[in-house]
């Protein structure tokens, strides 16, 4: 029986834990019965009785430890081995003592009965805790313990003849040997039933656990059967991700679950994988990024982790776990967009410095040449002529200063060094402040600037940025106005915003030049002012950036020969 159980543990009972250990314990018990029975008379009695009974007791200790381990607890082998050693020593000493032989049977029965009771208790408690249904082996251990304990009482407190002890032909011994033989067989049978019960219970719990995991997972778990050409399982999360019910998704063909491009891509990759699986049966996982079709007709990006497997009918299946990566895909697209913007910014930087080198180098070079001429002719020039030349130099240096100021302001804005502190700002006050900057320019060209903004007009914006915007627009208006001209600044509330307008009646702007406004990466074109003032579009680029920073927009209207009107919107203040 032990040998048969040993071989069965490698085949039929391969998945049942401890079966092989139980077969070894049974083999140990069989060895004990051979030593104590078959070899009785062939070897000294103290050897056969001591070793044989110790082997049998160790098998019972092993049964107890195996069952304790089977329930996931740690067995105390040291105690069992120590008690077996005590039993062996007691039996050896008893053989050479003068005590009646019947008490030796009491000792031999007492030790195993204790372990039978302990094992029965363990089985009963764990059956209750784990809700197992099989109590077959529990009753056998319990009855074995009761039988042996009864044997202890019989041999201890009743008169039993020496011929009925050990292998004598007494009814008690006959019943004992028959009992142990039947119990050994039925106990092994009961152990197998308990193992099967625990295994099936574990399988059910695993199935329930995996089922619960699948049903509560946000990922879609699915199985596609290639032989049946259908989904044999789709988890409930399909509804949340695609809007299809489980039945609707199961009735879909694989080709309809994804967009045509994604399905063709998947099909092209699956065919060689399936051929490899047919040959090797190796479960190699693969991941694909596919565009899945939703019930409302929209699509969503998913990452499908798949592996080939064979079911119980040897049919090839594709097990897949699909995860929603639509957000990640959008982030990747956003990163690509940012990368393009970064490339554009880099290109913009190159063009920007090209503009600066051209527009800054020219005026400074001209100023340097002009100063040299002044120094050469200073003694021969009249004060009036000298004053006129100095005015020209002052105007040129002002242009360079304005260009540098815009450059530095733009550079600080690109490195986020300019603080953004929006507040309620009086537009009229800001316009007055800006007009005071251009006293020399307006007097030089006899231009009249009208501040027509009402005292009750406020915007919610950064005051320094607003003044920078107005300063650039007013500077351009003066630059392209004719001598004796006029510049009007107005503001009016409109749809929760305030529209601020800077209008001149000068040369106007051609469509070709106006098309490059606000684009630093475009080829910049500008024309000189009415008195030859140099102009760049850097100021307008800075205006657009600051206006958008303050949640506004800028517009321009112009007609050649009639003037220009720049207007921008900002959020209305209180």
UniProtKB/TrEMBL annotation:
Which NCBIfam families does the entry mention? Answer: sensory_box
The UniProt entry, under PANTHER family, shows:
PAC DOMAIN-CONTAINING PROTEIN, PHYTOCHROME-LIKE PROTEIN CPH1
InterPro entries in UniProt: HATPase_C_sf, HATPase_dom, His_kinase_dom, HisK_dim/P_dom, HisK_dim/P_sf, PAC, PAS, PAS-assoc_C
- Record's keyword annotation contains Oxidoreductase: no
Keywords of the record, alphabetical order, are: Kinase, Membrane, Phosphoprotein, Transferase, Transmembrane, Transmembrane helix
Annotated Gene Ontology MF terms?
kinase activity
Q: What is this protein called?
A: histidine kinase
State the organism of origin: Leptospira levettii
Q: Where is the PAS domain?
A: 206-272
